[in-house]
Amino acid sequence: MGKHSIRLIISDIDGTILNDQHQVDQELQAQIPHLHEKGIPLVLASARSPLGMEPIMQEFGLLNTPLACYNGALVIKGSSPNYDILIEHSLDKKEIQQLLELVSQHFPTISINLYSGKDWFTEHFDKWVQKEAAITGEIPTIQDLAFVLQKQVSVHKLLLIGEPADIQKLQDYLQNIAFPQTAFYLSKENYLEVTAKNVSKENALLEIAHFYHVPLQQIMAIGDNFNDLPMLKLAGLGVAMGNAPKAVKEQAAVVTQTNNEGGVAQAIRQYILD
C-alpha cells in the first residue's frame, strides 16, 4: 500500500498509543500537525468513557476529531459537557436489570460499573473501582444502579471487574442465559465489558469511515488486543502492536513495535509520513 493512500487512522488507546505507564509517545505527538497538514484524521477508539478519553484528545490536539467511546457505543465530537453525539448504541435496560440481579445474587464479589455518557455510576467504592479511577482519572458517582436505570438516560456500557477466575466463571455462566440484545467480551483477563449487541470497534470503524466518506481500503487501524482484531482485519491496513498477543499479530497485515517503543509513531512514519 502506498504512503499516499491512507486517508484516515483509527487507533486504540491503552496498550497502543499509551505505554505501560499510561503516557503518550512524544514522537506521535509531534506527528499530529503533519497529519493535519495532510488532512488525515486520527480517531481514537477505546472502551474508555468520554472523560477518560478527553485528556488524551487534548494532549494530542484532536479537538475537532470524533472520539469512539465505549468501543463505539457512543461516538462524540467536542469536549464535555457540550459535546455533540454523532452515533449512539444504548443497552436494553430490561436485560441490564436482569444482569444486575444475576451478578449481585451469584457473583457478589464482582464490581459492577455503569456508564451513561460522561457519567460513571457504581454502588461501592471497592478496590476495583479505586484501581479504575487511578487509571482513568475519573471519579464515580456512588448510587443505586437500579435507580439509575429508572432515569431517562442512555446506558452505554457496563464494566464488571473481579479476580480473573471469578470473571471467567461469570462469563461462562452468562453464556447459558439468553441476552439477545447484549454482548459480553473480555478487554482484560479481569474486565468483562457489556455493550449493546451491535457495538464493536469493527462497527465503529464502518460508521466513522462513512462519516468521513473514506473507503475501508484507505484506512489504517491500529490495536493491541483481541477486541481490536475485527477492526484490524476490516481496515485496508491493519497494524498490530508488538505487544499484542501472537494470534492478533498473525492475523494483522503488519506488526509494528511495542507500545513502550513508540509503535504507533513508527507505523505512521513508515506508511504515511516518510
From TrEMBL:
Keywords: Hydrolase. GO terms for molecular function: magnesium ion binding; phosphatase activity. One of its GO terms (cellular component) is cytosol. InterPro entries: Cof, HAD-like_sf, HAD-SF_hydro_IIB, HAD_sf. Gene3D superfamilies: 3.30.1240.10, HAD superfamily/HAD-like (3.40.50.1000). Its EC number is 3.1.3.-. Transmembrane segments: none annotated. Pfam families: Hydrolase_3 (PF08282). NCBIfam families: Cof-subfamily, HAD-SF-IIB. PANTHER family: HAD SUPERFAMILY HYDROLASE-LIKE, TYPE 3, PHOSPHOSERINE PHOSPHATASE. This is Phosphatase. The lineage of its organism: Bacteria, Bacillati, Bacillota, Bacilli, Lactobacillales.
